[in-house]
């Protein structure tokens, strides 16, 4: 799928991130595929999925475009950190490749512009930049990504830790980037999703608030304990 076709399909709509890590009760490709089916029935127009196995299962279950990523490791740059990771999710059927585009060093030492150039040249798929700062977003746009999101704001030393979405960064990205900006990161409510569109977001990705019941339960439990 070309970037233009993907972006036209998701404009102003909801993308659901269907992910469960190995320590979560719902971990498993077939479970994530069921989550994707539920998301489609509910109105999602695309799915974000992690790992070749999950991407294959989701692609078999729903006829929606898939933003693929491959988490490897647990610290630093671990969202699609290498070309090999990108190639695996491309082979699994991903329509868009999401990857960490922060300014942190990559595990193989390859500069981000070189990695993006190789993905574009060899895999022929559009890329989705997960960033934590405006400078990172601008650098990723210059390197040729098709879209960017403040997904990693709050998870790097250069970005502020906060419980909710980084609407300030989202708004600045929307005002200054020459590419579509997608809202993603700690969007917990429909009102926050709507606000993201009002700020200029191309579309909205929601994950934990929809597909991770352990996290949802924990938020309710903390609220009842007075720890909002």
Account of the protein in words:
The chain has 228 residues and is of the alpha/beta class. The protein has a single domain, classed as Aldolase class I (TIM Barrel, Alpha-Beta Barrel). It contains ten helices and eight strands. The chain has helices spanning 3-10, 29-42, 52-61, 83-91, 112-123, 134-142, 167-176, 190-198, 208-211, 213-224; strands at residues 14-18, 46-50, 66-69, 96-100, 127-130, 147-149, 182-183, 203-206. It has an eight-stranded parallel beta sheet.
Number of structural domains: 1
| Second CATH tier, the architecture | Alpha-Beta Barrel
User: Which fold name is given in CATH as the topology?
Assistant: TIM Barrel
Rg from alpha-carbon coordinates:
16 Å
**Overall geometry:** globular
Largest sheet: 8 strands, parallel
Instruction: Output the helix-strand order.
Output: HEHEHEHEHEHEHEHEHH
Record the strand order, biggest sheet.
6-5-4-3-2-1-8-7
Number of strands: 8
Q: On the 0-100 scale, what is the average pLDDT? A: 96
User: Which structural class do the helices and strands define?
Assistant: alpha/beta
Low-confidence stretches: none
Portion in helices: 40-55%
| Helical stretch tally | 10
Highest-level CATH class: Alpha Beta
Q: By CATH's scheme, which homologous superfamily applies?
A: Aldolase class I
**Could you tell me the strand content as a percent range?**
5-15%
Terminal CA distance reads 41 Å
């Amino acid at each position: 799928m070309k970037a233009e076709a993907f972006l036209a399909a998701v404009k102003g709509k909801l993308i659901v991130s269907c992910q469960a890590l190995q320590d979560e009760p719902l971990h498993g490709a077939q479970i994530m595929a069921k989550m994707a089916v539920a998301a489609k029935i509910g109105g999602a127009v695309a799915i974000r999925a992690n790992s070749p196995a999950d991407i294959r299962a989701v692609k078999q279950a729903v006829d929606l475009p898939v933003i693929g990523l491959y988490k490897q490791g647990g610290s630093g740059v671990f969202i699609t950190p290498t070309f090999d990771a990108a190639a695996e999710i491309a082979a699994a059927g991903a329509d868009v490749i999401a990857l960490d585009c922060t300014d942190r060093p990559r595990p193989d030492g390859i500069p981000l512009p070189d990695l993006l150039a190789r993905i574009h040249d060899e895999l022929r798929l559009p890329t989705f930049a997960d960033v934590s700062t405006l400078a990172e977003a601008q650098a990723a746009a210059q390197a040729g990504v098709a879209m960017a999101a403040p997904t990693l704001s709050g998870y790097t030393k250069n970005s502020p830790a906060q419980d909710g979405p980084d609407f300030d960064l989202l708004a600045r990205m929307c005002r200054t980037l020459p590419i579509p900006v997608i809202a993603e990161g700690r969007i917990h409510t429909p009102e926050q999703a709507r606000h993201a569109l009002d700020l200029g977001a191309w579309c909205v990705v929601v994950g934990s608030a929809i597909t991770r019941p352990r996290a949802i339960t924990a938020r309710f439990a903390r609220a009842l304990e007075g720890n909002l």
